[in-house]
Structures are given as structure tokens and as C-alpha cells.
Design the sequence.
């Protein structure tokens, strides 16, 4: 029972490089989210999806793109990485949206360092 | 402008005593509140939640209290155990279907 799986777990990039973080969930959840965690800032929402083929901006979307081509996968892309994007990224999924009492299930996180 | 605030970055408590973690929010449209626990190198895990129609929810050693007039919620852990040492995040949601998280409180339970 994998739950939410993120790949890769660690990555070091140079400024200007691009990369994609993959999130996969096996719980048939409709909602998926990408958060970043920075010291003293808690978890901030980057982008989210309320279903296959849909995406929406969260609190800090600049510099990121996402796609939800399949219900079980949610991809986070960095087209031109910047040092400010050094962070720990968490993917989450939920059966219901937050306002309907939807508990989020998180992956283990992906630590990204941009030099 | 943080809509969910956890003003105590850290808290230390003796084993067996009560731990009280606090959270304040500014958005009166929030109608559902949750607490998550996070161990190092792991993702956050759901702990307990409360709807705005209630003022208390209890689950074993964990109780969450909601004071809507003060826009304040708290998590009580009693008795505290060393395994409870973790970062605790409070979160709130409203009609936007998003969770807004606080910055977290590191709880250390001393044996």
C-alpha cells in the first residue's frame, strides 16, 4: 500500500536547468497538491488539481508548472531553476477538497537544491 | 500576510505532562481546521480535525479546541510521550478548497 510516492527524493540543479518532480497516488483521490516547505514558513501551496485534466494556482505558483494528465499522477515542473526554489517539496492527495473536510495524505518529500 | 499563525516555534514538555500547542487565524471564512504531525525526513500525517460548528473534538490523548470568537484553536496532548516529539502544523480551509498551513511548532517531550 504505497499511498503517495514522490520521485526523485533528492536532486541538485544548477541555476537555469529544468526538471520535473513526479507524484503518484494509488488511492484514487480526486484532489492533488504540491506544497513547498521552507524554514519558518510552514507549507505553502504551489499548485493543485481538483481532478484529471485540471490544474489551478496556489499561493506561490511563479516559476512552476504542473500537469495532471492521469488521475493518479501530478507533475511539478521547473523550467528554469533559481536558487530561491531550493526547498523541500511535498505532494499530497485527498478524496475531498479541504473545505469538505478532506484529510490530506502526503508523500515523503523531495529535497531540491539549486546552486 | 499569514492567515494561519503559530507563534511558538518550539515547545518543551516533560513526559506525562500536558502539551498545549496554539494556533491563530485571521480569515473568518475558514470553516474546517486540522492538525498535522511531521517527523524528520517524512511527510506530514493527519492527526485530528474540527469543524467550525463544534468547539471541541477528542481522539484518545489528543483534543482540539476551537474558539471562533477569538479565531484561536489549540491542540492538547495528555499525557505527553517521547514519541510525540515532532513538528505540529495547524491548517485551515474554507470555500477555496485549499488548506492554509501555519509555520509549525517543534514539540520536544523530555523523558
Sequence:
Amino acid at each position: 500500500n504505497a499511498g503517495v510516492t514522490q520521485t526523485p527524493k533528492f536532486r541538485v540543479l544548477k541555476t537555469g536547468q529544468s526538471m520535473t518532480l513526479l507524484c503518484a497516488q494509488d488511492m484514487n483521490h480526486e484532489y492533488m497538491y504540491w506544497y513547498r516547505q521552507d524554514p519558518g514558513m510552514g507549507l505553502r501551496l504551489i499548485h493543485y488539481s481538483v481532478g484529471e485534466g485540471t490544474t489551478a494556482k496556489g499561493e506561490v505558483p511563479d516559476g512552476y508548472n504542473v500537469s495532471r494528465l492521469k488521475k493518479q499522477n501530478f507533475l511539478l515542473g521547473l523550467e528554469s531553476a533559481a536558487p530561491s526554489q531550493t526547498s523541500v517539496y511535498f505532494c499530497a492527495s485527498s478524496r475531498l477538497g479541504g473545505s469538505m473536510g478532506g484529510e490530506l495524505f502526503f508523500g515523503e518529500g523531495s529535497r531540491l537544491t539549486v546552486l | 500576510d499569514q492567515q494561519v499563525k503559530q507563534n511558538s516555534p518550539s515547545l518543551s514538555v516533560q513526559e506525562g505532562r500536558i502539551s498545549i500547542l496554539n494556533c491563530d487565524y485571521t480569515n473568518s471564512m475558514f470553516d474546517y481546521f486540522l492538525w498535522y504531525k511531521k517527523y524528520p525526513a517524512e511527510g506530514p500525517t493527519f492527526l485530528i480535525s474540527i469543524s467550525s460548528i463544534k468547539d471541541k473534538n477528542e481522539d484518545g490523548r489528543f483534543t482540539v479546541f476551537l474558539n471562533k470568537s477569538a479565531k484561536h484553536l489549540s491542540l492538547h496532548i495528555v499525557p505527553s510521550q517521547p514519541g510525540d516529539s515532532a513538528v505540529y502544523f495547524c491548517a485551515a480551509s474554507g470555500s477555496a478548497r485549499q488548506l492554509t498551513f501555519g509555520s509549525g511548532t517543534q514539540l520536544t517531550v523530555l523523558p
Observations:
- The CA atoms of residues 50 and 65 of chain B lie 8 Å apart.
